[in-house]
Amino acid sequence: MVSQTVELLKNEIPLEQESVVLTEATVNGLVLVDIINGFCTVGSGNLAPREANRQISGMINESERLVRLFCEKKLPIMAFLDSHHPNKSEDPYPPHCIVGTDESNLVPALRWLENESNVTIRRKDCFDGYLGSIEEDGSNVFVDWVKKNKINTLVVLGVCTDICMLDFVCSTMSAKNRGFLEPLESVVVYSRGCATFDIPLEVAHDTKGTLAHPQEFMHHVGLYMAKERGARVANQLLFGVAEKI
Fold first, then answer.
1. For FRET with 148, which of 15, 155, 176, 193 sits at 20 to 30 Å CA-CA?
2. What range defines the domain where residue 54 resides?
């Protein structure tokens, strides 16, 4: 039934993805959204997968592969890590990714990034990394990062496709359109590097306060809405004209 619904959705709101060339004539930046244990590593908290998940595993593999290419080229990377204080809830979700726990750390496959000179780590306490980058004095760490590195094209990937990733893309597109992120010209969501979680309807019915969240359905919706906001959605990335990612 779920597969039939997903196919119906894809027929009603088809998502055309593209192949994007990241030219070396411009500055390309990469943003990782919440690729952390609390969302991606089996058994690592209230919002972590309960068992191995193909979409999440594929997202981690693609992220690691892309990150290594960006690091080889010394291109700027920003990684958002969901990190909450225990006395501040984030409705409608249960406590998760508490500051100081391993839930709020990068997954093992990406933990090495913490020591890379081209990587900026930003811990955030809300869905949206753009808002989570605002400091007490009103400055914005993400905005400053874009301007300092003179980023023209921004590639975004991570979890969850339809929540934190989408929220960040929406805010970034609005800020770009208002001229707050010059010289940023383009935001590219790399679909193979995105994933979301899966809560079937029958599980939601049996768990008080839980909303159904069919994975493939919501993943498609998240990508579609990112494109609807003006982001490019790519299922293939290339550096220059020949180097396929």
1. 193
2. 25-235
User: How many distinct structural domains can be found in the chain?
Assistant: 1
List the single range of 69-78, 217-226, 235-244 with lowest mean pLDDT.
Answer: 235-244
pLDDT digits (tens, 9 = 90+) for 139-157: 999 999 999 999 999 999 9
Residue 39, domain CATH: 3.40.50.850
- CA nearest to 66, candidates 97, 41, 35: 35
In a domain, 30, yes or no: yes
**Collapsed DSSP state (helix, strand, coil) of residue 56:** helix
